[in-house]
Protein: AraC family transcriptional regulator
Organism: Paenibacillus amylolyticus
Amino acid sequence: MNRLCKVLIVDDEFLVRQGIKHHMNWEAEGFIIVGEASNGEEGLQQVSLLKPDIVITDIVMPVMDGETFVRTLKASNPQIEVIVLSSFSEFEYVRSTLQHGAADYILKPKLDTNELLQVLQRTAGKIPELQFEPSHDGWRLGQLMEKMLSGFTLDEDSEMPMIRDTFPHESFRLLVYKPMDAEGNPLKLDQEEIESRLRSDLPEVECAIVPAEGALPVMLLNVDPARDEWMVERIKQLASENAAGQGNPGWVLSDSFTSFEQMGIVYRERLIKLMEYRFYYKDRPILVYGELPPMHPAGYQFNVNMFLQHVKRNRVEAAREYLQDHATILGRDYIADVFEIKSFLGNLIFNVTITLADMDVQSAGLEESKYTYFKNVDGATSLNEVMTVLDQFMTEVQECTVGAGGKRSDPNMKMLLDYMHEHFDQPLGLVEVAKHFHFNPSYLSSYFSSHKKEGFNEYLNKIRIEKAEELLRSDDVTISEISSMVGYSDHSYFCKVFKKFTGLSPSRYRRKFWA
């Protein structure tokens, strides 16, 4: 058997993995990097999938460290050789890995090309079934493209000739390519089938699949500059034909560039952004860089108060129309961060449920279902999906308000509730509020209970806990910070009240929401 020695890299530091991968012309020395992993658990999965001959692994890693990884690996795959990377302070762990079958080790501070190659060659020599022979055919094209995407430069003498031979033309583009069958289902094709299919559809174009991260194939296209316009129109035609089924291909085409060395920049700075814009234009079969519709003029802001006033006045249909108009504007603000858009629209759901509670509208079902709406907004893959969720929510809001008449509190009660909602994050008690409104505390307590189904303190806790729920869903504020942000000076008391209202501790609530 005459083949390359397959090597897997397991290290939690991305730069270390990239450095090893692009340290030398591996194939010229008889090796091939078949994959990488960021911890021992991922490493075991990759071993099962890729069947490497040699594994290079770090010692200190999250999830599963190198010592446990080596012990587990050698127990199930004793034929795989292991080389351990370590620092000076980790030698006791190295000793343990050697006892469990590691073949050799390299000190990270002394890692260089020659030592790494010598250790690999010694280790490869221990594999009986591997007839180790260096290959001098050069790296595979995919590895050169991966090297370029990672920000490395190609060697002019040993690597660029292969690129020039493979891509002889002076015009390049990147294409996110997703061929589909007649029913609109994605075709399950391997790399060779994808390239063959695209070459058949674009006979004048040189193409190769790019080893980029993500589920969709990214193709590098190379064409004579005089035929670039023809190629773009042909790709649009193919995308439209693919969209004729029940699905949508979701293709993305970059602008043209003149040098292979520009591929990494075009991929990172333009193609990835175009793929993000698909959230706003999922109904289009293809997005082409430079052919997007004009942006909406800057300065527009959604008027939350006006939207909620529509709800308060039982004008739910007007609120729905205003929201739909906003969606149209969002569709023309496609550079907006998708996470921020989802957070804003999710907060609208929260604010509407609070408003209905203030109106004394019976909305117990909506209180339960709002968490489903939150999750559906967060999981939506397009703006249209988000707006469908919000439309369903507004329909449920309308059902709650129809016939209820939105039983209104009197003006004094309205001012009192507004004050509590505005100042819930401050030390707020019955005495302080009574003093602010020039009421007797006992009278205020009776007055409040006669207008609300709960007492003053319970209602205040309800406001605070609902705000705490909103903050817990953001996942960027600690629980102790949230406690003080919603008006509780005692963290343990906050946790006790939160569990009383929700049935969960704050930490479990956050884990459940993000599960």
